[in-house]
């Protein structure tokens, strides 16, 4: 069961409630009786490993061609 955060629009009190996902959201502030608004929670995400960018998003042929020095011949007039 997740924690849900609420904030009272009248008194500014912030409340955390441990509720089932199927439960109805809280609407009445226990401190003043005002209207509660559900807040969006932050999510902690940790990316570990080599990473998508360095392993999957680059084509191997593109990195080989970019590492070769370009030999362009220009005609001098």
Automatic annotation (TrEMBL):
InterPro entries: Regulatory_FmdB_Zinc_ribbon. This is Putative regulatory protein, FmdB family. Residues 53-77 are annotated as: Disordered. Residues 1-41 form the Putative regulatory protein FmdB zinc ribbon domain. Residues 60-77 have a biased composition (Low complexity). Pfam families: Zn_ribbon_8. It comes from the Bacteria. Transmembrane segments: none annotated.
